[in-house]
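Question:
Write out your own:
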Amino acid sequence: MATGVEHRPYSRFPLLVLLHPREQTQAVILLSVLGLLLWGLVVSIAGMPLWGATTMVLALLLIPAVQKWRADRLDYGPTAMALSILLAMQGFHSIEHLVQWIQYHVLHWPPWESSGLISPANAEWIHFVWNWTVVATVAYLIRGGMGNRWAWMLLAWAVAHSLEHTYLLVRYLELVQELRRLEVPFVSAQGLPGVLGRDGWLARSAATEGTFLCRLPGLTTAPRLDVHFWWNTGETSLLCIAGSNYLRNLFQAYK
């Protein structure tokens, strides 16, 4: 843990220090340019689906990313490496939510078509696994030294977010079984409302009927896409604040 000193020109913004590709900068730039060119070619000429082209570009960028994360471990330790990986993955996840928001609100696509850059990943079981993986990773970060108050707030937020996706997965599986019983297995059960949002549990449950809880603006009126956009925005914001505080203290060791 001795090479981090030379990467401290942006120490006022510690996330930039950690996310900087350093020795992999040229590889990241070259593969990004190559990936964007290939993305355009395979989508416009070869007719590859958007999700396939996006996956191809991400696979290219994974090559220097793995090398960069190994360097993070050597420079700053395993906790910082795990934080770096989570920030990168959560960053792309945020882009995916932003693309969905633009598709729905700006391009006015229907909800079932506003599925982002990797549409096959917009599935209940993937959301469930991803969000509980975030919870486990944040718990690991806290145990590894990122135990500031923002990290605990992040953990609470991530657990609440994951519980919503657990509820969604249970509802999805119940509806799939019902559709099979009715012998209509090819009808999609994806996209059901969850606890929050329009037609969600909070808005329609007998437990909240007649109370102010079923009439809360946004929490009971927003479409599912907006609900999860804001879930993710809160999660990403708390991750950035918690990570910045942790890294700022970590980098003090290099002074």
Summary: The helical segments are 14-19, 25-44, 50-76, 78-106, 124-143, 149-181, 201-204, 224-251. DSSP finds eight helices and no strands in the chain. Confidence is low (pLDDT under 50) at residues 1-9.
